[in-house]
Please model this.
Amino acid sequence: MEYKDEMHMKADTENIPEAQEAPQKQAATESEQETKERVPIGRRILNDIRNAFSPERRKKSAIITAAVVLVMAAAGGLLGRSGPTPVAKRYAIAVFDDMKTVVKLSAYDWQKDRLADYKDEDDFFEEMSDKYDEDITSWRTFYKAEDRDSREDLEDALGKYKISAEVTKNRDVSLNKWLDEYSLTLKELERSGSFDKDKVSGVKEVTVKVKLKGEDQTERVTMDMCLVKTGGFWKVLTCDMDWD
Model:
């Protein structure tokens, strides 16, 4: 019993400094708050920045900053490639010798639309095998054959060539106008079950000037495209080509 009493007395004695310090801490906090309120907001922001980059926090801040920069760069890169202008340029260049990209950037199910007049994939691949005189058993082998054939035709006409593209027109089109002016195209795509017009949230008409600069001669092409926004991405619905 005496031992317990001694322990209580000891604990009470140790708590005395804490009780004395409490009002002092509260006063200090109130003083800091008053000082903070008197400091102009612009200076407070600068002070906060300095404190954030103090030596003990600099390493942590550098890591956070680096992470933010990486995220912003990735987002910027994605936006830079998925907007209507870059999509139109990529499509215009791919048309000549990159079928895989053409299919990827098409607003409709390109493969499904292509198979509309065939019994099935095997029937299509069999006909393509006869056309290109090689064994085509998949979309991958079809794309390769198509690209090789197009490349050979261009090289026969131009020699070794390089392709460049420039967007010269980019304008918005209302959904009602689009539904009216592209009604025949939409009916064809819906017939094959390769496109759903109700998922479109935006429409643009884009003109791209393409230059094929070859060793022997240079050709120029004007492409008038209709791009639609579906699922948050811009893709090409139609493309009309006019050789200058």
